[in-house]
Amino acid sequence: MLPICGVPETIRQGMMEYRELFCRDEGFEHVSRYVTGLILSPNKTLQGIYALQIWEGEPPSRRAMHEAVFAAGWDAERLRPHHRAVVAAEHRGRGREVISLDWTLAHHEWGPEIWGVTKSYDYVERRMARFQTVVTAVMANRQVMDGIEVVVQQPSVREAEEEYLRATGHERYEQLGQARERL
Prior knowledge:
This protein is 40% helix and 21% strand. It has seven helices and four strands.
């Protein structure tokens, strides 16, 4: 993942609708960077988002970002009604909208070396086949279908973990620490 050098222009424009809810520019900047991290960062924790940030000059402490996001003087009571007003204008007149989450298996016959490929039974072909699990999120209405995200699921490593536990197991553990280290 490339580092985040600032707030992308698309997110900056979207966040400007909420600037009036913040009493300080620094707090608004931190929250804008936090929202950027929620969208772009693979690690959605505050620590993961902060770790990807590159700041001009002296970087603020992680505590400063935490305070801006969770404890700063921004009007939490006005946020929800304001957000509804902003979002409603974008979706008004389009009819009902639905967010769909689909979990499908996509055929992938290239082999087990490729990330996310597992062997499973194909009930249509009535044979064993290789698949990738693909999770798709889509927002749709009568006029538009907009993809939200597509994620290829990591392969299951349960069998390898069980094999490791069998290979490294002892009959007895003298110390609880030894058992914890093994697990």
